[in-house]
Amino acid sequence: MGQINELAKKTGSQVIAADATSEEDLENLVKQSVEILGGKLDFILHSIGMSINVRKGRAYTDQKYDWTQKGTDVSAMSFHKVMQTLYKNDAMNEWGSIVALTYMAAQRVFPDYNDMADNKALLESIARSFGYFFGRDKNVRVNTISQSPTPTTAGKGVKGFDGFISYAEKMSPLGNATALDCANYTVTLFSDLTKRVTLQNLFNDGGFSNMGVSNAVMDMVTEN
Q1: Mean pLDDT lowest for which of 88-102, 159-173, 194-208?
Q2: Number of C-alpha atoms within 13 angstroms, CB side, residue 169?
Q3: Is there a smaller number of Cβ atoms within 10 Å at the N or the C end of the chain?
């Protein structure tokens, strides 16, 4: 919590610890947040994910299923729990925005991304399904951002992650989107400028998601 506490000190914010898989913790988090901020919430970012199978080096074809279930609970079901808690407590302001971070392994095969690919696919489905109800009943937007491979703590645990980054950089006309690029894009989705954008999986990846092959990748292959 060291870096979070440092950031909180700089911004005059208060940190509320919560287990995102615990409904009781989330209930407390939402109620305290509304109380501290003096009203309903304008935006929420879900930016957590984890696979014990990846951490422990278990292949996709040799999963330990209790680990898989824990990873799904942390990485995807926690998003449903967060939104259900917000929805039931009517804690979001009208035209508020909820965003979750994902990765395109939800749609395409990245073998060493392992069960995290399944988790991200479920996460995106939850965003669409719950986003319908949040839009219909509360005028609240729900979207996911599919980000370039980014060197996060979780990402670094994926086998061959440096290769992921290098390959995506060569494939993308604009190069990989950085963590700061992702933060800036997220801010646009929190703003009133995107108030009619919802149920979308939005790619922030320098064009990677629409590429077949690039000259840089072809050069790399033919050189070898």
Answers
A1: 159-173
A2: 10
A3: C
